[in-house]
Amino acid sequence: MKSNYGKLIPLLLGCIAVTNSTLVPPHASKVQAVVKALPTLVHVDATRTTTRDDSIDDSLRLLGLLELSGGDTSTRGEDNEKETSKVLTAIAVGAVTATTGFLYGKLLGLSLSILWKDLPALLLTKLGSLNASYFIMGVMTFGGLLLGVLSSIFGTTFTVADFVHAFSSAPIERLPSSAIHLFPVLLMSLLTSAFGFSVGPEAPMVCAGALIGSSMSRIWYGKSRRHQEILSYAGAAGSLTAFMGIPIAGSIFAIEMTRSNAGLNKASGHSLSPSVISSIAAIIMIKGILTPSNHVGGHFSYGGHTIGALNGRAMIATAVACGAGGALLGTVFHKTVHKLKKVTWKPTTPASPETEEKPWLRQIAVKTLIGLVVGIISTHYPQTLFWGEGSLQSAIDGQKTPFANTKHGLVDVLTANARVDPNAPFADGSAALQVGIAKMIAIMLACIGKFPGGIIFPLFFAAAPFAHVFPRVLGEELMPVAVFCLMAATQASVTRTPLATVLILSLSASSETDLSVMLPASLVSSYLGVFFSRELSTKSYFSYNE
Description:
By secondary structure, this protein is mainly α. The protein has helices at residues 2-23, 28-42, 54-63, 66-69, 73-127, 132-154, 160-167, 178-194, 202-221, 225-244, 249-257, 268-290, 312-344, 359-380, 392-396, 429-448, 456-467, 471-495, 498-507, 515-536. It contains 20 helices and no strands.
């Protein structure tokens, strides 16, 4: 039996090496060596009696893994120390970024309550009545003005586009100091979300976590770019995990986002494990220490009892259709944003020094105007306010869950001018279409105006109503699957994060959601969304430096 194992293990190691080589190209030479050596390794002399089959040693040497199975004890000890150090630093980064994300979330919740619940209640008490149009437009216009002023004061701040550009290059670019950029990133993002604009805190959390991880790397490891890359990814994963309350997905998202196709960045070979450890440390910090009594698990319900027995043909057809539809929505979104952003921020050629443009003035003017326009949209479609995570359930089930009953719900007086009642189910496909288009425009405007924020949950919210445009075609059984798949495909086609997108949707779903049905379909639609979007446009939402 021992000799049989000696024959089998080299073959298995060769298969593993071949598999790994597709993920980590640098091992290609080792794979070739293993493949060439397999014939000689398999023909092991059964009469050899050693403490360990030499064939295994030979295979491990070829794979560069001899130290893991024995080797020099001093080298193995050094490797163990390095591995322990890597784990501890990842845990530390996860704990720090989790605390940052927790405090940020508390401040954001307080700000939202003051602006959209306490202030309207106070005005109603003092004035006896409240005009919804004036209030919503006034708050958002003031928010745009305030953010314009702060943008002119802080100047250029670190954005998720900078993160993607820096970590998609080879070698990676150094991140700026957190002492300079961390406070502006958090403050600007907090105000953007609090004033109701349709971009969320997800991307700023990635930026903040990366800045923190990069700074901790400089403290511990000096100017090492490799360690900066590892701990920046770990920081991004930790802060995103803390804010969304779900593990692992943030790790995959940060590493997927920095590659232009549907795959992990090449840095995953050395950065994925620390990112996962950081994410786990963050979730332990949040769930076990900071909020130990809070409910654990996802909360978005897709009406699992209505799905029924979905056959393979229906599942694949729905997944493919939603993949194509999501790619179309995502491509229209990012191409529109890029074109209008180029026009909006195009430098003007001054006729004379006296008429030379003042950058701070454009910042204030653009953001204030966009605040007014988004305020008008939100007056007529109040369900499109905010980044969408708190009110996503209403979009998922076609507003069977009243907007007022969600985390970001408004008092009735602020929804009085709504063209589509946010507290009643969609009357027809036209109502769903109006909400989907209004939300998409609101997200576009926020991105065009360079309001700092993420688009994960905003795009989820925008995509869901489009599935409800065709209730008769999809029927009650297919609707939950179509909503799930269209959200996945739309978001993935823009950010190029198909696997992380499915993980976010799956881990945020309630226990009644039948993931055995949803998961296969959403994986197909998510990856197809990226594929179709690349066929529709050679450009993407982010600028990659590959």
